[in-house]
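anyone seen this seq b4? input:
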Amino acid sequence: MSADLLTDPRVEAHPFGNFFFADTKVLMMGTMPPTPDKWCMAFHYPNFYNDMWRVMGKVFFDDIDYFRVGDEKRFDAEKIKAFLQAYKIGECPSVTHVIREKGNAADEHLTVVATVDLGKVLAQLEQVKWIYTTGGKATEVLIALVNQSISDPASPYFDPSQTLYKLPKTNQFLEVNAFGRAFGIYRLPSTSRAYPQSLEKKVAAYRAFFTLAGILPASGS
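predicted toks r here
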């Protein structure tokens, strides 16, 4: 990050950062949460009206309210953390610093100032075979990081023989070789209610991914 941006009052650091363990197998990559006035807890996907934890509850426990605290309009952050650790799912935001051009977290109004050091993250996570994104901006950032790693002569992973990767469409994936290893990138639909898709279809998409990634057993097995 440049010195000018360090002093720019509009620049905001990601409030939560990474959450993973040495045995993490799958990384979830988003961008920025909403502003704190919209949080119902201090953890990733904190907006009660974002359906991430309803989708995960339905996919893994057949209960959209699995992570909800009773009848309250909030999720149980500690229960979510325990779930992620148990199922070897990590949280790794694609960005570390942004400017909210319109004061919200909408992709089209986020200016990315600094991104995650993905090479450093992956070096800590030898078992990760999949990274999945939860929106368009996160996918763009991730593919840019991958392409930079193989195309920049200053990168320790520079490989001029490789063709640059294109953005996958929603519910599609790429098999990539970058940062000294092979892994998959899967683009899932956003769980924001602004994304025009039913909860049922989002649940089906996430279930298909976690089955492919080996986190959920295949149907009938």
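The first strand starts at residue 11 and ends at 13. The chain has a mean pLDDT of 93. kinda curious what u guys think
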